[in-house]
Write a structure and sequence with these properties.
This protein has 459 residues and is α/β, with parallel strands linked by helices. The protein folds into two domains: 4-182, Rossmann fold; 190-448, no CATH class. It is 36% helix and 12% strand. The strands form three sheets. The chain has a seven-stranded mixed β-sheet. Strands 6-7 form a two-stranded antiparallel sheet. Strands 10-11 form a two-stranded antiparallel sheet. A hairpin with an 8-residue loop joins strand 10 (423-424) and strand 11. Helix 5 (125-141) packs across helix 6 (157-168), helix 6 (157-168) packs across helix 11 and helix 9 packs parallel to helix 13 (312-324). The radius of gyration is 22 Å and the shape is globular.
Length: 459
């Protein structure tokens, strides 16, 4: 039966996609923020801001602020949610799961009113951040004078939209109490450096190796904004400068030379020493995670050979589907685990550096982003090769949680069937174990109760 399992999952995934492509009529859409905000904060319940299904959404309805429900603000704390990439085009995105979970949390509803910035994730940050800033500016100007400061909760790409907006607008940052950043590539990711990453796909199976490269190229096709905004920022000196020669770390044959090619990396957008960045980090609460592998050696053992050499002929359809299409179910977690190994094993560009012999510099990653990037660690001239304790000592934000053996999409509560993932926080083991969504509610309760009034972010 084993050979038929990937085929069955592929068929089920296709059925799932077919269902999500069907729009059951045009769902009424609320007016965007500039027209509806006076009603959002009034005591009279406003129009219900319902967003339509998958491809029924229209571009003019994106890059606007909406509310989760039609109840008035009534003195509650505004909480703005920024989802991740492609969530404007999914039938059952993470923010809808969050909305359903909030309905079962009366204490959270009593303390917070949730809003959603629904944006076009194919646009660059240079477009998204100013538009989010305009929405927030209009929103805050219409809040009552005694309204509590905002809380912002962001996931993945949404965290970069929030960061750029608040760093560029100190007045909006001042009106914000706490910023949650979940799985945000603050320093970018190796995954989005195509010239670096595609070269180093490694798998003993030639067919699997070819299929993975094809899937990767298909995944990156048309995503130039991700390369621009989420590309590796070289904050740790793993690449010596912006224009360098790339060495492929292969022994040269007699009479031959190493393969070389130029690479161009984006300049770091902000430096940790910038005053506005330090002000942003003082209010930053980070949720991040890493996937267990042979190099992290923390709690459980895996078989790396078996984990990375599954038969390519059987798994090509499932891997390609899970990597290229937004099917956040069975297949995508296998892709996360495979990418975890690729990121952990990727070499650097600096064979002559003093740390060049160090291996597995990015072994702590969530299948998409290295932990040093999601923790927004300060820039330095050498990569972060410390154990987890070293990451904690170098973290210069306000508060951080690192979850064990959780991938990038699981942190956003993507699991099919969903709701069975329970995880602990490595940095604060005394807090126990919870599901990813429950961790957010736990911290929002703590924030509302002012459990740590001395902390600039409330946690």
């Amino acid at each position: 039966m084993l050979p038929f399992r990937p085929m069955l999952m592929t068929i089920l995934s296709l059925i799932f996609m077919a269902n999500t492509l069907v729009a059951f009529g045009e769902t009424p859409l609320a007016q965007p923020a500039p027209a509806i905000l006076p009603q959002l904060i009034a005591e009279k319940p406003p129009i219900e801001p319902v967003v339509p299904w998958l491809f029924a959404r229209k571009m003019q309805h994106l890059n606007h602020l909406y509310q989760f429900d039609q109840t008035p603000l009534a003195g509650r704390q505004p909480l703005i949610v920024l989802p991740g990439r492609s969530q404007e085009g999914q039938g059952n995105p993470w923010w809808k799961k969050l909305a359903r979970a909030i309905e079962k949390q009366p204490s959270i509803q009593k303390q917070y009113k949730f809003y959603l910035f629904l944006y076009d994730s194919t646009e660059p940050l240079s477009v998204l951040s100013p538009e989010f800033g305009q929405e927030l500016d209009y929103f805050t100007k219409h809040l009552p004078e005694n309204s509590p400061k905002m809380v912002i909760f962001s996931y993945s790409l949404g965290g970069l939209v929030a960061r750029d907006t608040l760093i560029e607008n100190p007045a909006l940052l001042e009106k914000t109490q706490t910023i949650f950043g979940m799985a945000v590539p603050y320093h970018g990711s190796l995954l989005f450096d195509k010239s670096w990453f595609d070269k180093f796909f490694k798998n003993p199976s030639p067919l699997r190796n070819l299929s993975d490269k094809m899937a990767y190229q298909a995944f990156m096709f048309g995503r130039d904004n991700l390369v621009q905004d989420m590309g590796w920022r070289n904050f740790d000196g793993s690449i010596p400068n912006i224009k360098v020669t790339k060495f492929w770390h292969k022994s040269a044959k007699d009479g031959s030379t190493q393969t070389q090619s130029p690479i161009y990396l984006p300049e770091p957008k902000y430096r940790s020493t910038d005053a506005h960045v330090l002000a942003f980090k003082k209010k930053l609460v980070i949720y991040t995670s890493y996937i267990e592998n042979a190099y992290t050696k923390t709690r459980k053992k895996r078989k790396p050979f078996l984990a990375t050499t599954s038969d390519g002929l059987i798994h090509v359809p499932a891997n390609l589907l899970g990597t290229v299409l937004p099917v956040y179910g069975y297949t995508v977690h296998g892709a996360m685990n495979y990418m975890n190994w690729q990121i952990a094993n990727i070499p650097t560009y600096t064979p002559k550096a003093q740390w060049a012999g160090l291996q597995h510099l990015y072994r702590f990653n969530d299948g998409v982003i290295p932990l040093s990037s999601t923790l927004y660690l300060p820039e330095r001239n050498t990569p972060y090769n410390e154990p987890l304790g070293g990451f904690e000592s170098n973290y210069d934000g306000c508060f951080a949680r690192v979850f064990y053996d959780v991938d990038h999409v699981d942190l956003a509560h993507y699991r099919w069937p969903e709701g069975h993932l329970t995880t602990s926080d490595i940095f604060h083991a005394e807090a126990g174990e919870r599901k990813p969504m429950a961790w957010l509610f736990y911290d929002l309760d703590r924030l509302a109760a002012h459990k740590n009034p001395q902390s600039p972010c409330g946690l």
